[in-house]
Amino acid sequence: MNDLAGKTFVFIGRPGSGKGTQSELFVKRLESEGYDVLRLTVGDLGRALGARKTLIGAWVKDMLGKGAAFPSWLAFTLLVDELAESLKSTGQVLILDGAPRRLFEAKSLDELMANLGRSAPRAIHIDISEDESRRRLTARMRGDDTPDAIENRLSWFTTEVMPVIDYYDGRLIQVKGEGEIASVQELLAASV
Hints:
By secondary structure, the chain is of the alpha/beta class. It has a single domain (8-191), classed as Rossmann fold. 55% of the residues lie in helices and 14% in strands. The protein has a 5-stranded parallel sheet, with helices on both faces. Helix 2 crosses helix 3 (55-66) and helix 6 crosses helix 7 (147-167). The radius of gyration is 16 Å and the shape is globular. The mean pLDDT is 93.
């Protein structure tokens, strides 16, 4: 791997692609090499907000139950708020899991990183087929993995996230995600 200090990586993939698992393993690898790493997961931030006993918390919980995507303003607000609390230096490696998920968010993230004196993010696309995504989501049976919610998320990925992947052309690392977890991680590490 090259020197990754101060780099930003966004993990993108269909629901169930393993981007969370792969980003966690990537963080462990980087930390074992002495890097200071901050990993943020928009889904976790959203689920935490959905657990709050507030009006917005109830609204987010309802969206999650339907498999609906957060509005751009909410996802980006959660991300920026957490960055404001947790990003300590320009030398930290920043790992974003599941964000950006819309073109507006990708462009805004580029602008934010430039304003912070950081290089433009690179995207790591953990690529699996729609059928494999559906199979994995059905098997994991997380509370928000109902059949309707799964289909909503798969459709949303095609219409909203695929343009983000296209936007990152030239800064995109494609990793086949249908192999064994360790094999996918080795492909990822070799590609960075």
